[in-house]
Specification:
Layout (H helix, E strand, L loop, with lengths): L2 E5 L4 E7 L4 E7 L4 H15 L9 E7 L3 H18 L3 E5 H13 L3 E7 L5 E9 L2 E11 L12 E4 L2 H4 L9 E5 L6 H13 L22 H5 L5
Parallel strand pairs: 1-4, 4-5, 6-9, 9-10
Antiparallel strand pairs: 1-2, 2-3, 6-7, 7-8
Helix pairs in contact: 3-5
Length: 230
């Protein structure tokens, strides 16, 4: 099953094309320039794989949580491409994809994912791997660093740039290690999307939606003056 996957929910833009066995991947730190670079990167990855949109079986995207602009960009591009190619879409939670990346790269089976949410907050979620799938132990949420706690149980592996922005989080109880440089990867999004597609859980382009856990889309004057960002 051939799938195109991409993510622009963080400062990194990531694109992958694969079938579960082999993958072509591209990632770069683009910041707000992802809106200009995403479509050319998708085109380049498809050409490198010898595919066109109509050769795909599905499209997957990082649905959030993450930067509002980046999440909306990925969702709208996925919808537009899927509508034109008449293929289903899978919206993959970004924190789950971060856990998948930690499992593939560090063999972590209990991952506490933490991304910088700006505005002095973090996005967090916890996932435990059971067999070939992940179980959500703590659903994605946004909170102040002082309010973050790790679920009970065996040691968890911390992953994500939230630990770099707020280094004090690395000392949380039940964390057995932290990878603050971990980057969300489009390949992980594709890997999580494939079993969803096999189970018939892909959706039509119009039904693909972002995952927001913070619903604010603007800052107050005081927050802007203090340097806060959404």
């Amino acid at each position: 099953m051939r799938i195109l996957a991409f993510d622009t929910s963080t400062a990194w833009m990531s694109v992958a094309v694969g079938d579960g066995e082999s993958w072509r991947v591209h990632a770069e730190q683009t910041g707000p320039a992802a809106s200009e670079k995403l479509l050319p990167a998708i085109d380049a990855m498809l050409r490198a794989a010898g595919l066109t949109l109509v050769d795909l079986d599905a499209i997957a995207f990082g649905a959030g949580p993450g930067a509002f602009t980046g999440v909306r960009l990925a969702c709208s591009v996925a919808q537009g491409l899927a509508f034109g190619a008449d293929v289903p879409v899978v919206a993959v939670p970004t924190l789950a994809a971060l856990a998948q990346s930690a499992w593939r790269e560090r063999h972590a089976t209990r991952v506490f994912a933490c991304l910088d949410a700006r505005m002095r907050e973090v996005y967090v979620a916890a996932y435990a791997r059971e067999g070939a799938a992940w179980r959500t132990v703590q659903a994605p949420a946004v909170m102040k660093p002082d309010d973050v706690t790790v679920p009970p149980g065996d040691r968890w592996r911390g992953a994500g740039d939230g630990f770099a922005t707020f280094p004090q989080l690395a000392s949380l109880a039940r964390l057995g290690g932290v990878d603050a440089a971990a980057v969300l990867q489009a390949r992980a999004i594709g890997e999580l999307a494939l079993p969803e597609l096999a189970a018939g859980r892909g959706v039509a382009a119009a039904d693909a939606l972002p995952l927001y856990v913070r619903h604010r889309v603007a800052l107050t004057s005081e927050e802007r003056a203090a340097g806060a960002r959404l």
